[in-house]
């Protein structure tokens, strides 16, 4: 059988790529695009960003001596083509699966991944650090950061540009300008880049070389001299980047692989110091096989037919927590015009795209700028508006100072809706919402809730909206609900009050969040061993239900707390409370079931729960170990 990818079949590492004739590169890029489409059709995953950088990836590895030259991909969800070209093609169809390739760059996976990333806007900072380290050690390798997908809207990217522009380290920043983040890019900078691309037609390679000569003449000793000479000779006015101390080159066509090679060779071979920003225009999702246009260029997809582009879809058994949140917020906003929604470049991921279609004037996408989102919401709350800040748990970590300083200390009623709380399957440790309970429950006067099902989520959203004297947060997982009936109209819950779902006499399981179903299953299994079990839903991680905890402690031999969060969260606060109240002196045996003290790898949810020891069987094992019943433990292990 004749291979559809004869050139790509010969590429096992970038050294083999560099042995190709230059005129073969367009064909290689075509084969690489076909390979990415075929692989993604079998695995799903991030898709559009990688298709947009096919030619750029080929050109970078062709021109630069990777891995000696450091190539850093911002976010790195666009790194699938990079993985194929750097010796991982044979595993590309395992990506995001348990034991397979990670969906982002990872230092322990390959020497060609010098810096791991899955959150946005870190590439320039990391690259600048590597450039300075190189200079300190007297080495001469190149350092390249590729940033795009709206990542320049984050404050960290500005901080890095500011720092890099004041140093004289040789650094190449490639701006992959595709006018997108996950959703279409927003903000003044995206408009500026669009205007820049419109006002300055794409440059040819010989124009890039000429401008490099103008920017770096041999008789100018300092970066400031070179920048001034370049600005005077090459352009009629400075760009924003030049004002920051960069040499700006571009824009160029990011899908002309031959032109990219010429430009990058000129950059590689120039006698330059200081930072350069190379502006490349690309199309996210270029060459995708789907018939219908999509505003997000198929950022992430499920499995699909590579010939027809038809995506495999299964009917959900229950609505997703994200959808329930969005619909619930719309219902409340219909009656309360002071409710507004804030997100940080994740309108579809958080469900606020739906809210935004209904209330466009009350929806604020601030770009990839979680810190700004939180303080912006604090300002809204300070002047009488009811902001709901919908940010993934793992991304809210990026704004922790603002949560503490701008919201909590001032007791402002900002409501945080933290999607993707807990383990998140294929996205792995970088996206898991593991730490929000630990980092929020320690803050004074914060109300922290976790629904056990989708109906509880609706009630808790109404509860948060009713809290007007302090901040509040509700955390809920990725994926579908458990299938309970949704209330036609939700009601606020009593603050700090849990509920008992099953009465027993010897064992107590106190659950927070959606592990409640596992606790109920564990209670059924414990009943088979003659261990009647009470199952309670805490509802609130803060404030704790003191009366409920006292009852469980005094009326049961074993009390186990269960949460899908890291050590230091709900269970730790229950233990601290019991110690203060003397409940640990009553003889009850207390155990906490949390996420483990290691980063859980990517895989299916079932694989992750097994690795984290959060299954019903693990809860049963915890109870039996607390009781000191080795015979029963052996029976559980055998089953």
Task: Summarize the entry for a quick read.
With 639 residues, the protein is an alpha/beta fold. It is built from 26 helices and 19 strands. Helix 2 crosses helix 4, helix 13 runs parallel beside helix 15 (352-358) and helix 13 (321-335) packs parallel to helix 20.
Overall description:
- This protein has 639 residues and is of the alpha/beta class.
- It folds into three domains: 8-289, 3-Layer(aba) Sandwich (Rossmann fold), CATH 3.40.50.970; 321-475, Thiamin diphosphate (ThDP)-binding fold, Pyr/PP domains (Rossmann fold, 3-Layer(aba) Sandwich), CATH 3.40.50; 499-638, Rossmann fold, CATH 3.40.50.
- Helix content is 40%, strand content 13%.
- It contains 26 helices and 19 strands.
- The chain has a seven-stranded mixed β-sheet, with helices on both faces. A five-stranded parallel β-sheet has the order 2-3-4-6-5, sandwiched between helices. It has a five-stranded mixed β-sheet with strand order 14-16-15-18-19, with helices on both faces.
- Helix 21 (516-528) links the parallel strand 15 (507-511) and strand 16 (533-537).
- Helix 2 crosses helix 4 (54-63).
- The longest helix has 19 residues, at 25-43.
- It starts with 13 loop residues before the first helix and ends with a helix.
- The model is unreliable at 219-237 (pLDDT under 50).
């Amino acid at each position: 059988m004749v291979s559809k990818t004869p050139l790509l079949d010969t590429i096992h590492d970038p050294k083999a790529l560099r042995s190709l004739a230059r005129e073969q590169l367009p064909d290689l890029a075509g084969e690489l695009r076909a390979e990415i489409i075929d692989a993604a059709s079998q695995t799903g995953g991030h898709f559009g960003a990688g298709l947009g950088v096919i030619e750029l990836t080929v050109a970078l590895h062709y021109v630069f001596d990777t891995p000696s030259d450091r190539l850093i991909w911002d976010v790195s969800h666009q790194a699938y083509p990079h993985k194929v070209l750097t010796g991982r093609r044979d595993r590309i169809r395992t990506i995001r699966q348990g034991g397979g390739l990670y969906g982002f760059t990872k230092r322990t996976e390959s020497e060609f991944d010098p810096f791991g990333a899955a959150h946005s806007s870190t590439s320039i900072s990391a690259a600048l650090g590597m450039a300075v380290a190189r200079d300190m050690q007297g080495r001469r390798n190149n350092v390249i950061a590729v940033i795009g997908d709206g990542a320049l809207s984050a404050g960290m990217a500005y901080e890095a540009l500011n720092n890099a522009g004041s140093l004289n380290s040789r650094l190449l920043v490639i701006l992959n300008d595709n006018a997108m983040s996950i959703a279409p890019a927003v903000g003044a900078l995206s408009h500026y880049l669009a205007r820049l691309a419109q006002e300055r037609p794409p440059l040819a390679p010989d124009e890039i070389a000429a401008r490099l000569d103008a920017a770096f003449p041999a008789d100018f000793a300092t970066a400031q001299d070179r920048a001034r000479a370049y600005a005077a000779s090459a352009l009629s006015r400075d760009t924003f980047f030049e004002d920051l101390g960069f040499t700006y080159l571009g824009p160029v066509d990011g899908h002309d692989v031959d032109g990219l090679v010429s430009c990058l060779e000129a950059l590689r071979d120039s006698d330059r110091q200081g930072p350069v920003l190379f502006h490349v225009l690309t199309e996210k999702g270029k060459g995708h096989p789907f018939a219908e246009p999509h505003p997000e260029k198929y950022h992430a997809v499920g499995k699909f037919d590579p010939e027809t582009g038809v995506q495999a879809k299964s009917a959900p058994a229950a609505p997703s927590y994200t959808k329930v949140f969005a619909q619930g917020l719309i219902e409340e906003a219909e009656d309360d015009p002071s409710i507004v929604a804030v997100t940080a470049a994740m309108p579809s991921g958080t469900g606020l795209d739906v809210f935004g279609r209904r209330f466009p004037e009350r929806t604020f996408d601030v770009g990839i700028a979680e810190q700004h989102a939180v303080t912006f919401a604090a300002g809204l709350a300070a002047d009488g508006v009811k902001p709901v800040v919908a940010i993934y748990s793992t991304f809210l970590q990026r704004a922790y100072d603002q949560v503490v300083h701008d919201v909590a200390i001032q007791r402002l009623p900002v409501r945080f809706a933290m999607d993707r709380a807990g383990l998140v399957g294929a996205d792995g440790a970088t996206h898991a919402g593991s730490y929000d309970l630990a980092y929020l429950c320690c803050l004074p006067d914060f109300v922290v809730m976790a629904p056990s099902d989708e109906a509880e989520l609706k009630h808790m959203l109404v509860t948060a909206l009713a809290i007007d004297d302090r901040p509040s947060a509700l955390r809920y997982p990725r994926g579908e609900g458990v299938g309970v009936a949704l209330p036609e109209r939700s009601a606020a819950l009593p603050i700090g009050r849990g509920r008992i779902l099953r009465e027993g006499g010897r064992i107590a399981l106190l659950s927070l969040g959606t592990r409640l179903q596992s606790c109920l299953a564990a209670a059924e299994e414990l009943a088979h061993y003659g261990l009647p079990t009470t199952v309670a839903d805490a509802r609130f991680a803060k404030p704790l239900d003191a009366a409920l905890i006292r009852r469980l402690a005094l009326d049961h031999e074993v009390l186990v707390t269960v949460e899908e969060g890291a050590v230091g969260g709900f269970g730790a606060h229950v233990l601290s409370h019991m110690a203060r109240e003397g409940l640990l002196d009553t003889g009850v045996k207390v155990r906490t079931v949390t996420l483990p003290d290691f980063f859980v790898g990517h895989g299916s949810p079932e694989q992750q729960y097994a690795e984290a020891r959060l299954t019903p069987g693990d809860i049963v094992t915890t109870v039996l170990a607390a009781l000191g019943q080795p015979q029963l433990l052996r029976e559980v292990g055998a089953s």
